[in-house]
Structure formats: C-alpha cells, structure tokens
Request: fold
Amino acid sequence: MDNFSNLSNRTRKNKAYTLPELLITILLLAILFTLGIIMTSGFDNSKKLRDYSIAVALAQQAIELARSSPFDILDDEDAGSNSLEVDFNSVNGENDLIVPDYDSGFTKYHRLVEIQDVKSSTDDKRSIGLKTIKVTVEWKSNETGKNEKFVVNSTIADIN
Reply:
C-alpha cells in the first residue's frame, strides 16, 4: 500500500503547474484579450465610418440634384406638389429614383430635404434670388442602437 500512495503522490506532483507556467499562461491570455478588444473596436469604427459615408453621399446627392434643377421648381412654395422638395420627400411609384428612404445592409436611412426662399431683410415678401437647402439624414446605428443624424445646410442662387 505504501508503494501505491508514493506513486499517487508522485503523479499529483507531476500534474501540478509551476508559477512560471501560470504567469506565462496569464500573460498570453492578456495579450489575446487585448488584441481581441483592439480588433473589435476597429471593426466598430469602420462600421460607424461607413454609416456616415452613406449619410454624406445621400445629402450630397440631394444638394447636387437641387443645384442642377431649375430654380423656380425647387421648393413647394413656388411649384407646389410638382416641386423638387416634394419629390425628395415622397415616393412616386416603383421607378422613382429620388426616394426618402434608403436601405444598406441592415441599416435604414431616412432623408428629409427642406428648401426655402431667402427673403429680403427690408421686405419679407420679396425673394432675393437665393434659397436655402437643409438635408437631414437619420438612421439607427446597429452597434449602439442609438439614432444618428447628419445635417447639411447650403444655399442655391438663381444665376439665370
């Protein structure tokens, strides 16, 4: 029986980890966790950058289309339901290329375009040949779950 207990004690001692082995294991795990955190934060930042890039592109598209359109059809005060402002903010059938909602992957973007006349400072009924355009793009971030917003303001002049 003594031989069995001696053998049992020896195998237990051989199965134990030494302090340097434990420290090296902890160090390796810490390095792996740190690399994992760095990698996932990089992925989150690239997703956020992609979301803002799409929002900027949607706002830029609206501003460029407004600048290339005739001045007298830009806002609904001048052209009513046939205005570019109404077209931006509504869907007119399947073949409508200018829509307020855009889907990219799992993210849905909503664009709101507001166009207004700039009035004279002395006569609030007289237009000075300038319009302001405000484009707001909103979406819900998949990473944080928060609503994000990108707003661009610009002006368009009547140069004709």
